Structure formats: C-alpha cells, structure tokens
Amino acid sequence: MLKSKDKKKIVEEHRTHEKDTGSAEVQVALLSKQIDELTGHLKKHSKDNHSRRGLLKMVSKRKKFLEYLSKTNKSNYEKLIKKLGLRK
Asked: One GO MF term, please (predicted)?
C-alpha cells in the first residue's frame, strides 16, 4: 500500500497539467510503484497466493493503460516507458 506522500510525489512527477491526478500516465506510474512493492513482498512470502492474484490484476490493468496510451499519444507513451524502465 502506497503512503499518501509517496503518491503525491509520483503524481507530481508524472502529471500532464497542474490539477492532473487521473491521467493514464499518472495511473501507470502509481501501478508500477505498487507492482514493485508487491513483487518485493512476494519474493519474501512466496506462498501468498491472494497477493499474487492482486499483482496479476494490477499488471493487467497497467497493460491496458499502456495500450490506451500508445494508441492515443505515442510520444508520451515512449517517454513514460523510458522513464519507468518498462519493456515494450
């Protein structure tokens, strides 16, 4: 679970305008942070299948956001992939 100050920091880094909190770029960045944290948890607790299911749902959701972003704004998609260090 992300803390509110971590969320604010991520939103400020990835927002497209002053009051942006829900754009695809911001949501992908937030999901990526949550996925990283949950991956660390699952390395320690390998039999936690409930959390593993949540991880798979988050990965799927992030993939859908990335597909949408690649269709609508290719340049922002490329920047975001590079900034977050994600594979295509």
From this structure: structural constituent of ribosome
Q: Which bin fits 43, alpha (ψ -120 to 50), beta or left (φ > 0)?
A: alpha
Direct distance between the N- and C-terminal alpha carbons of the chain, in angstroms, rounded to an integer:
26
- Rounded Cα–Cα distance for residues 28 and 84 (Å): 9
Question: Residues 28-53: pLDDT tens digits?
Answer: 999 999 999 999 999 999 999 999 99
Q: Token match 């660390």: residue?
A: 40
Q: What angle do CA 7, 24, 76 make, to 5 degrees?
A: 110
> What is the dotted CATH code of the domain comprising 24-84?
1.10.287.10
What value, to the nearest 5°, has the Cα angle with vertex 48 and ends 53 and 59? 30
- Give which of 36, 42, 82, 26 is closest to 58, Cα–Cα: 36
Q: How confident is the model at residue 57 (pLDDT cuts 50, 70, 90)?
A: very high
